[in-house]
């Protein structure tokens, strides 16, 4: 019988820290694990995933831009994956893929636990409406943010995300070009992928979005987070947080689902953060 395999799928994927994170979790818990990164262009993802299962694949993480596609390939979904209409965690069971979304839980755990933030009552701006944004929007509402404004360069996608959240009045969409007229926010979450890839330019948004309490969060990490976090610092945000902690926490949720044991995330986060501190400061 083929050795059980796990992987992270994305396009591009060379930057991913997921193999290192899961290897660290495996060492910590004494679980034998093979976990690799697999580049999967969207047009080939379904075939690549099928081949992975046939070769002994038993679980996978999914990153940009494949989360909504992964949702469509699953035979069953957890309630949070169904609500997000996006999947970042796949489990192979009974000859089918089953989907979950651990992004929102990972983000909230990182912000409230590691960074000590109280999300309740915060007027919140979510930039982006793709699979990454879908994964965190519901969790932010559950964590008690006062309201959630969703802004995306393609307005129809923001409208669709807000409709899926089903909390009219509390969650609403706005036009990107109208950001200057939206007032200020205590929490700004960047879930766009604009900074990924080569030749990424600076992030631009009105500094009127920021007040004296604003925390800016980029769910990206490393070089992909630099443009937004640079803008946030220049705009005078009280704190800036990159996506490294969220990445570790969502990975722990997936690891527990696959192996039945929850790893200790803090030593793994601290090791990775120390190595990446020269690029992005998380506090």
What does this structure look like?
This protein is of the alpha/beta class and 283 residues long. It has helices at 18-29, 45-54, 67-72, 79-84, 103-114, 131-142, 155-165, 226-234, 244-259, 265-276; strands at 5-10, 35-39, 57-62, 76-77, 89-93, 96-100, 123-127, 147-152, 171-175, 185-190, 210-218, 239-241. It folds into two domains: 5-101 and 248-276, Rossmann fold (3-Layer(aba) Sandwich); 104-244, NAD(P)-binding Rossmann-like Domain (Rossmann fold). The protein has ten helices and twelve strands. The strands form two sheets. A six-stranded mixed beta sheet has the order 2-1-3-5-6-4, with helices on both faces. Strands 9-8-7-10-11-12 form a six-stranded parallel beta sheet, with helices on both faces. Helix 1 (18-29) links the parallel strand 1 and strand 2. The model is unreliable at 195-200 and 279-283 (pLDDT under 50).
Layout of helices and strands, plus pairs?
Layout: E1 5-10, H1 18-29, E2 35-39, H2 45-54, E3 57-62, H3 67-72, E4 76-77, H4 79-84, E5 89-93, E6 96-100, H5 103-114, E7 123-127, H6 131-142, E8 147-152, H7 155-165, E9 171-175, E10 185-190, E11 210-218, H8 226-234, E12 239-241, H9 244-259, H10 265-276
Parallel strand pairs: 1-2, 1-3, 4-6, 7-8, 7-10, 8-9, 10-11, 11-12
Antiparallel strand pairs: 3-5, 5-6
Helix pairs in contact: 1-9, 5-6, 5-9, 9-10
């Amino acid at each position: 019988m083929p050795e059980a395999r796990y992987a992270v799928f994305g396009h591009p994927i060379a930057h991913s820290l997921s193999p290192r994170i899961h290897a660290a979790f495996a060492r910590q818990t004494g679980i034998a694990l093979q976990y690799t990164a697999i580049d999967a262009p969207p047009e080939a993802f379904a075939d690549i995933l099928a081949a992975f299962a046939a070769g002994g694949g038993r679980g996978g993480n999914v990153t940009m831009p494949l989360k909504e596609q992964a949702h469509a390939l699953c035979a069953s979904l957890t309630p949070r994956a169904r609500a997000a209409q996006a999947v970042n965690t796949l489990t192979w069971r009974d000859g089918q893929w089953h989907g979950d979304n651990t992004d929102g839980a990972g983000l909230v755990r990182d912000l409230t636990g590691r960074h000590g933030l109280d999300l309740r009552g915060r007027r919140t701006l979510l930039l982006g409406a793709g699979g990454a944004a879908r994964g965190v929007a519901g969790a932010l509402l559950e964590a008690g943010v006062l309201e959630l404004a969703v802004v995306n360069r393609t307005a129809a996608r923001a409208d669709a995300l807000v409709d899926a959240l089903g909390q009219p009045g509390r969650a609403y969409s706005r036009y990107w070009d109208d950001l200057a007229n939206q007032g200020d926010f205590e929490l700004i979450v960047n879930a766009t992928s604009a900074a990924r890839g080569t030749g990424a330019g600076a992030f631009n948004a009105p500094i009127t979005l920021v007040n004296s309490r604003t925390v800016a969060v980029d769910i990206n990490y490393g070089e992909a987070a630099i443009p937004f976090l640079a803008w946030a610092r220049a705009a005078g945000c009280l704190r800036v947080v990159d996506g490294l902690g969220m990445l570790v926490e969502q990975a722990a949720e997936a690891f527990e689902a696959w192996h039945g044991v929850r790893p200790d995330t803090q030593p793994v986060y601290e090791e990775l953060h120390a190595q990446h501190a020269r690029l992005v400061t998380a506090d």
